[in-house]
Amino acid sequence: MTSLPPQLILQTLNRGDGLLGMRPHGKMGPRADQVTLVRLGRWPEAEADRKTWEQLPLRPVDPEMLQWRDAAFGRALTPCWTLEQEEFFADFAAEQVPQLRALGWEVEFLPGFAHHSQAIDAWRLEVGAEADDEASPAPERVQTLGLSRRKGSWLMSLGVVVQGERVDLAPLIWNLLKRDRRWLSAEAIGTIDDDAVISLRAPGGRRLHATAAPLKQLMLNLLEVLVVQRSRRGAIPLTSWEAARLSLLAGSDSRWQVVGADELRAMWLRLQSAGPPPPQPQPDGLGIQLRPYQLQGLAWLQYLARQSLGGILADDMGLGKTAQALAHLWVERQAGRLQQPALVVAPTSLMFNWAEEAARIAPGLRVAALTDPDQRRAVLADLGQVDLLLCSYGLVWRELRALTRHRFSVLVLDEAQAVKNPRSRAARALRRLDAGQRLVLTGTPLENHLGELWTQFDFLMPGYLGDSRSFAKHWRKPIEVSGSAQRARQLAARVRPFILRRLKSEVATELPPLTVLTVRIPLQGRQRQLYESVRIGADHLVRRVLAQQKVFGDGLISVLDAMLKLRQVCCDPRLVPGLAVPTGMETAKLDWLRAHVPEFIAQGRRVLVFSQFTGMLSLVEAAMTEAGVPLLSLTGATAEGKRGDLVRRFQAEEVPLMLVSLKAGGVGLNLTAADTVIQVDPWWNPAVDAQAQARAHRLGQTRPVFAHQLVIEGSIEERMLELQARKRTLADGMLGSDTGEQLEKFSPAEIERLLAPLLDEADPDDDA
């Protein structure tokens, strides 16, 4: 005769059953007015069933420990068992009961069992402005997509409604991420069936369940935030952009209730319905005729202003970014929207250029500059009579207290790569300035690494790309270290709507050609021996540093100093501090310059010579003076008031040669009188060399331009060219270029990409 299977009976008793609680005993803690007991309706007889019974985490209950209103109650409940904690019964019912039933056991839940999984009735997302005494009102933060502080401008609270009770969803999600890694990958989330039942665990052992669809919708939009956010409970800080994107959940899934995000949702809907920038006519009163691509740029800047957005005008060097920005300010003034002055912050060397260009391009703008120390207070006190205020990067943090007393209609950073270090005093000061619109002008938003791109966006729309740590983890490391093409495409799709970049080869076809010639010069004699000696010493130093694992701090400084010495020997051994150079030692690059510069000038060419080392420029100046070549020199030692005069003299063709240091003259200058550029020493990134070439190859140039890059054959300088090529590939892939008669910025396709999930694959070191 076959024996009947074992039977378990589970029952939850409370005050309605006469139970007052249970005293602690053994490993079991005290219970309040609810105790779940397990009884055996039929004992396990088979040996396998007895082993299963022994392995269950049940503990016998001492009947004397149960507290009843009447001593006669509960006598029929012995023998009985329970779990060490009452909240363990939710997991027992959800996980072990199905296993027992699969083994043939009968399990009966008596009415009133309190630990069944409960269905989620509704999903709730609450978005509210973060309390902050220094913060501006919520609608203004929405308009500018900016943060009042670094941690976030909005707080998001997630909840579910179960039988009329709101339950915090955040700890349930964290538990789910810990148990099921599929929810860390957008690609894996897409494979989950919308109707699949997902079990969620609430603190205290409570079990909830729901179909997957609404949770998938949330996770696809929130995945990036959750992976970075380390708080398991309570409200989650969000940037305005993240909060606005999440506010659209209500429109995409009716099961979501979104509370407190009406203005955020309105911003997204306005952006979606606005379409790409319309064509822009030539503004009246402008001092120049804008080219077609410049009118496109003006239309894009105007579009950003209407949508209260910031952006990066990243046109190739020499395409007139200054002219487009000034035209934008002029149109804003004509429309009556320049209620407060605009502020342009630029390198000191470009102050005179901005003043001259404003007078030529937008003569109707009232311009003032903070260049004269004796006039600064008067200028700041009379800003009501100013349309455009000019300030240098070096001055903006010194005058920060005075500048923060004013609000600016537009804040423009020119050559913004000058503040690519977000921790510099100037960069920190700029983030504190109050402006209705923030714009960046730079032909090189990405010079060395993606962190520089993050810095630009952290100024424009703080938090849009997360904080620097999360950006490094989710973007820089996968792209720069692991070479993830997928992550690179995602980041490019996220930033390109806010970057306008046109190349000279695409939009300024009337420009004469630029020919770049890499001149490889061999070292000879004692200079070659010296280079090899310094190279061997540097090699031993680097190996010693690596062996000691001193990659940072003093070790890194030593390595950089060794590489600097190698570069100095390539240029001229006399540049190395403390090095005794014997008379008559070869100087390969200086010899090349002695031979070719007078020849170029004799052919009627006008020449720019660039070097990072001002000492090298001094040696070149002495050699050219000895050869009878008239010249001008522009370095960091040149007084600010004299720079404009030097540029005018060269442009007037008074002299055929100008020596320029990269730091002082590598950006912003218009030197179209030159048709030959000589770069004595390469720099680590290609953008700097391109900037130097662009001083001559820009709008206004009428002759073909030849750029000669002097490189010592087989030296560290050739390795620098290889590094330049890798950096150029990274920048080109991330920035792309915009061509065509109609700009596709903020087209429906681009808006859709902005709303799409950003993480299609989980990072291997994500720790949920």
Automatic annotation (TrEMBL):
Residues 589-747 form the Helicase C-terminal domain. It comes from the Bacteria. Residues 302-463 form the Helicase ATP-binding domain. Keywords: ATP-binding, Helicase, Hydrolase, Nucleotide-binding. The keyword ATP-binding applies. Signal peptide: none annotated. GO terms for molecular function: helicase activity. The lineage of its organism: Bacteria, Pseudomonadati, Pseudomonadota, Betaproteobacteria, Burkholderiales. PANTHER family: SNF2/RAD54 HELICASE FAMILY (PTHR10799). This is DEAD/DEAH box helicase. PROSITE patterns: HELICASE_ATP_BIND_1, HELICASE_CTER. It comes from Roseateles amylovorans. The keyword RNA-binding does not apply.
